[in-house]
């Protein structure tokens, strides 16, 4: 040390030599001996800790699985025990230590430990995690906790059954929402004056004015004609691409659409291949169905919307031959001119001018 008052050095010699360490002391040998004793004590303590940790299979404070006991020892089993052996051991010990069959004061606690051991070893994922815990007790405590809760909260049911159950619930919800919404929209549409006037006019056209409503038979015929006219009104009303008169079918549900998805894909591919081969490569003329299909593509409407149109309107559109490129271009130019004229009329209208003056004042 400082000023050469105290000097000490420790000389380490190999274990096969004459001595393990040599100590040279000059002034203040007590301090050197004290330092050496402190270092030896610390090394001894560390050695005991490491030895106890390696011999102790379950770390202190790790409240997992069967706590400080082996789940195999609780059920008196070997680590190579099979599933039937685990179940047999659990039944045997539960009959012995069940609180209803045992008079011991700690029967409840003992039975809980047995039930926990069976829960750990009977589940395949949990048992695999537990065996890993036994094989590697030196891992960090949070790693053990992560593996434990990962296996504990893992899905216990077949994933396919879970997905099927979810689809069934969603399909039932879809059906309920569909029917409720259609019922509300039907009431709203039929309550309109325009719909009521159409129904009365249609009933008269069908011969309802010749009926005597005082007679039960004629009154029943009147109701039948009124129902028919109401159906015609609902057929013309489209919501989300379908008629209000149509009820939701089994094939419209989400579950069935997913099941039939491969078939739908095959139909789409077949239609596209057939169209290319028949009309582009071979150059054949379009049939009535293909003409309607191209017309709907130009109008950007679906099949249900096409069928909801009046027959005269459909015939007029088909006579324009919109499936021909030249006729289609002419029709699109006419629609563009109509939209421009409508825009000009709207701009020149008194209502639009009042709106512009109001905006300027703001």
Structure description:
By secondary structure, the chain is mainly α. It is 67% helix and 4% strand. The protein is built from 16 helices and 4 strands. The strands form 2 sheets. It has a two-stranded antiparallel sheet with strand order 1-2. It has a two-stranded antiparallel ribbon with strand order 3-4. Helix 4 (107-122) crosses helix 5 (124-135), helix 5 (124-135) runs antiparallel to helix 6 and helix 8 packs across helix 9. The radius of gyration is 44 Å and the shape is elongated.
Salient structural properties:
two-stranded antiparallel ribbon, 362 residues, single chain
SSE topology sketch:
Blueprint: E1 7-12, E2 21-26, H1 29-55, H2 71-74, H3 83-97, H4 107-122, H5 124-135, H6 141-152, H7 159-190, H8 193-205, H9 216-236, E3 238-239, E4 242-243, H10 254-259, H11 261-281, H12 288-299, H13 303-308, H14 311-319, H15 325-348, H16 350-361
Antiparallel strand pairs: 1-2, 3-4
Brief characterization of the structure:
This protein is mainly alpha-helical and 362 residues long.
The total strand number stands at 4
- The total count of helices amounts to 16
Low-confidence stretches: 1-28, 49-56
Give the strand order of the largest sheet, numbering strands 1, 2, ... along the chain: 1-2
Shape summary: elongated
Binned strand content: under 5%
What is the straight-line distance between the termini? 92 Å
* Cα gyration radius (Å): 44 Å
Oligomer: single chain
User: Structural class of the helix and strand makeup?
Assistant: mainly alpha
The secondary-structure element order is: EEHHHHHHHHHEEHHHHHHH
Share of helix among residues? Answer: 55-70%
Mean of the pLDDT scores?
78
Largest sheet composition: 2 strands, antiparallel
């Amino acid at each position: 040390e400082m000023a050469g008052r105290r000097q000490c050095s420790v000389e380490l010699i190999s274990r096969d030599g004459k001595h393990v360490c040599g100590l040279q002391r000059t002034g203040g040998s007590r301090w050197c001996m004290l330092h050496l004793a402190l270092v030896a004590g610390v090394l001894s303590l560390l050695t005991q800790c490491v030895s106890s940790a390696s011999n102790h299979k379950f770390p202190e404070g790790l409240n997992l699985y069967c706590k400080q006991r082996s789940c195999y020892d609780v059920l008196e089993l070997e680590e190579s025990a099979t599933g039937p052996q685990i179940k047999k051991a659990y039944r045997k010990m539960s009959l012995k230590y069940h609180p209803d069959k045992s008079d011991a004061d700690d029967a409840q606690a003992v039975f809980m430990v047995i039930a926990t051991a069976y829960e750990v070893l009977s589940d395949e994922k949990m048992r695999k995690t537990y065996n890993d815990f036994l094989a590697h007790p030196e891992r960090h405590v949070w790693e053990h906790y992560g593996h434990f809760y990962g296996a504990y909260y893992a899905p216990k049911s077949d994933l396919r059954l879970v997905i099927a159950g979810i689809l069934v619930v969603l399909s039932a919800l879809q059906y309920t929402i569909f029917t409720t919404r259609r019922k509300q929209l039907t009431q709203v549409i039929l309550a309109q004056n325009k719909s009521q006037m159409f129904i009365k006019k249609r009933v008269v056209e069908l011969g309802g004015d010749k009926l005597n409503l005082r007679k039960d038979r004629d009154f029943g015929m009147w109701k039948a004609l009124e129902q028919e006219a109401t159906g015609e009104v609902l057929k013309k009303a489209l919501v989300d691409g379908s008629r209000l008169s149509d009820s939701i079918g089994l094939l419209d549900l989400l579950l069935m659409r997913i099941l039939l998805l491969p078939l739908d894909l095959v139909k789409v591919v077949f239609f596209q291949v057939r169209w290319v081969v028949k009309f582009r490569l071979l150059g054949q003329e379009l049939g009535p169905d293909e003409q309607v299909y191209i017309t709907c593509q130009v109008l950007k409407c679906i099949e249900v919307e096409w069928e909801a149109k009046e027959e005269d309107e459909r015939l007029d559109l088909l006579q324009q031959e919109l499936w021909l490129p030249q006729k289609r271009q002419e029709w699109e130019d006419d629609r563009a001119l109509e939209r421009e004229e409508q825009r000009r009329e709207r701009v020149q209208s008194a209502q639009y001018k009042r709106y512009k003056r109001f905006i300027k004042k703001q």
